[in-house]
Amino acid sequence: MVLSQSEFEDLIADPEKYIEGNIVWARERSPWLGFRVEITSPAGYPLFLKGSYNPMITALSYHIIHGTAGRIYGLDLGKDHRNPDGQRIGEKHKHRWYEPLRDKQAYLPPDITAPATQPERVWDEFCQEAKVIHNGTMEPPPAQQLGLFP
Questions:
Q1: CA-CA distance, 43 to 52, in Å (whole number)?
Q2: What percent of the chain has pLDDT over 70?
Q3: What is the pLDDT averaged over residues 92-120?
Q4: Which residues have CB under 8 Å from 94's CB, separation 6+?
Q5: In whole angstroms, how large is the CA radius of gyration of the chain?
Q6: Over the stretch 120-140, which tens digit does the pLDDT of each residue have?
Q7: Are residues 30 and 58 in contact, defined by beta-carbon separation less than 8 angstroms?
Q8: What is the 3-state secondary structure (H, E, C) of the chain?
């Protein structure tokens, strides 16, 4: 099943979407940290949210994933993006579902003001704009260990 534009608009505008519990960053593949949390909604959308952070290159992402359509909404900081038409968007951009292009089109978000070095502040701004209520706290990412071996 492909997600229609009207279904996406209803889903992203739903102010009753929520995440329950604290978010703790875990080591994935060095030096990347990440987390995955379920998004619950009274409408029953099949959603989860994936976060990733690399403090070595200062890259941060929060992506809302739909169970059948894939990524439908997301924020990337520290990762360059070029749209399908060749337009360069830059290292701070958001992806928003657009039925003909899926998640490939990005734009510069005026609502994200915190830098990638402050994942908790970026999280708060992202949740507010995406209308996701977080009933918990986000722990700060663990400090990176410097050295050749993890």
A1: 27
A2: 95
A3: 89
A4: 73, 74, 75, 76, 106, 107, 108, 109, 112
A5: 16
A6: 999 999 999 999 999 999 999
A7: no
A8: CCCCHHHHHHHHHCCCEEEECCECCEECCCCCEEEEEEEECCCCCCEEEEEEEECCCCEEEEEEEECCCEEEEEEEECCCCECCCCCECCCEEEEECECCCECCCEECCCCCCCCCCCHHHHHHHHHHHHCEEEECCECCCCCCCCCCCC
Closest CA relative to residue 81, chosen from 73, 71, 89: 89
For 69, phi then psi, to 5°, come to -95, -20
60 contacts: CB under 8 Å, gap ≥ 6 = 51, 52, 53, 54, 75, 76, 77, 78, 116, 119, 122
Q: Which amino acid is at 29?
A: R
